[in-house]
Specification:
Number of domains: 3
Number of strands: 12
CATH class of the largest domain: Alpha Beta
Shape: elongated
Order of helices and strands: HHHEEHEHHEHEEEEHEHEHEEH
CATH architecture of the largest domain: 3-Layer(aba) Sandwich
CATH topology of the largest domain: D-Maltodextrin-Binding Protein, domain 2
Number of helices: 11
Strand content: 25-35%
Largest sheet: 8 strands, mixed
Oligomer: single chain
C-alpha cells in the first residue's frame, strides 16, 4: 500500500465523491478509482459503498480512515521538514481572499512576494470570508484572509487592519450633507448588502437589529464596486469599510461617518492549527506579516 493510494482514499472519503476527489487532486476519475480498488484488493474488503455518483464509507472504510489520515499527515510533515532542510523556496500556495480585500490590499503584496520568490506560484481563490474560513479549516486552502474574529482554538491568526464601516448614500440623498448618522436613523432606508457568504452580511443585519429595526434588503452582491454603483444610481444605501469608501467617486456618492454604534471591521490572516504549512506558505506568512504590519499599524 502506497502513501499516494492513502492520500486518494482520504480525499475521496472527505469529499464523498470520486469525481470531486479527482478534481481536487488534479487527476482523472479512473485513476483514483483504480488506486482505491488496489487498496480494497490488498485488504480483501470494500472501503466504499458505491451509490451512483456518490460514495460512503463501509465499516472497513471507517476503521481505515483515521489511521490513513495519521499516516498521510505524518508523511506531509516529514516532506515539509525535509524541504526546510534543503531550503527549497518553490512550490505553490493556495490563498483565499474575499474580493473586496484582494482588490485593495494584496496586488502589491503579491507582486513583491513574487519578485522575491519567483518559483513559488500563488493560487488565489476569491470567496466570501465565511467560505474562505471553512476552506482553510477543511484543508482546501493553506491560508485565508477573513473578517475577524474567528476561533483561535482552530486557527493561527494575525490581524493587520482595523477600521470602521461608513455609510454610503446617493449624492442627492437627504442625509448626504450630514457629518454623522446614527444607525437607528436608517430604519426606513433600503439596504444593499454583500451576499450571505460574506461576513459583513450578518454583521450589518445584527447591528441593525440591535438598533431596533430589521433592515430592508433590496439587493445583494459579491462585488463592492457593483454595490457602490447601485448606491450611486439611487437603488439604496450601503455600509462599507473606510478603505473602500475612500476610493469612491464622491461626485455621485456621499460618504458619511456612522455613529451609535460604530461598527468595527477587522481583517486578519488565518491558517489552521495542527496543519503543517509548507516552506513556501510559511515564507508567505512571514513576508506578508512584516509588510502589512508596517503599512497598516
Amino acid at each position: 500500500m502506497e502513501i499516494r493510494q492513502l492520500q486518494y482514499f482520504v480525499e475521496a472519503a472527505r469529499l464523498g465523491s470520486f469525481s470531486r476527489a479527482a478534481e481536487s487532486l488534479y487527476i482523472t476519475q479512473p485513476t483514483i478509482s483504480k488506486m482505491i480498488r488496489h487498496i480494497e484488493d490488498e485488504l480483501g474488503t470494500d472501503l466504499f459503498h458505491r451509490e451512483g455518483k456518490s460514495i460512503r464509507l463501509t465499516d472497513a472504510g471507517e476503521i481505515l480512515l483515521p489511521k490513513a489520515q495519521n499516516i498521510v499527515e505524518s508523511f506531509q510533515s516529514l516532506s515539509s521538514e525535509l524541504d526546510d532542510l534543503r531550503q527549497l523556496k518553490q512550490g505553490h500556495i493556495r490563498i483565499g481572499l474575499p474580493p473586496m480585500v484582494g482588490a485593495h490590499f494584496f496586488p502589491e503584496v503579491i507582486g513583491l512576494f513574487h519578485r522575491k520568490y519567483p518559483q513559488v506560484s500563488i493560487r488565489l481563490h476569491e470567496d466570501g470570508a465565511r467560505k474562505v474560513e471553512n476552506d482553510v479549516e477543511t484543508g482546501l486552502l493553506d491560508i485565508g484572509v477573513v473578517v475577524l474574529p474567528v476561533s483561535e482554538e482552530r486557527f493561527h491568526v494575525f490581524s493587520f487592519i482595523e477600521e470602521s464601516l461608513e455609510l454610503l448614500v446617493p449624492a442627492g440623498h437627504k442625509l448626504a450633507g450630514r457629518e454623522g448618522v446614527r444607525l437607528a436613523e436608517l430604519a426606513e432606508e433600503e439596504f444593499i448588502l454583500f451576499r450571505e457568504d460574506f461576513a459583513l452580511h450578518d454583521l450589518i443585519i445584527t447591528e441593525c437589529v440591535r438598533a431596533g429595526f430589521q433592515p430592508k434588503v433590496v439587493y445583494e452582491s459579491s462585488q463592492w464596486d457593483l454595490i457602490a454603483r447601485m448606491v450611486a444610481a439611487g437603488l439604496g444605501i450601503a455600509l462599507l469599510p473606510e478603505t473602500i469608501a475612500r476610493d469612491l467617486d464622491r461626485s455621485r456618492i456621499a460618504v458619511i461617518r456612522l455613529t451609535e454604534p460604530v461598527i468595527p471591521w477587522q481583517l486578519g490572516m488565518i491558517w489552521r492549527r495542527g496543519r503543517q504549512l509548507s516552506f513556501a506558505a510559511r515564507e508567505w506568512v512571514a513576508f506578508t506579516r512584516t509588510l502589512l504590519e508596517e503599512r497598516y499599524r
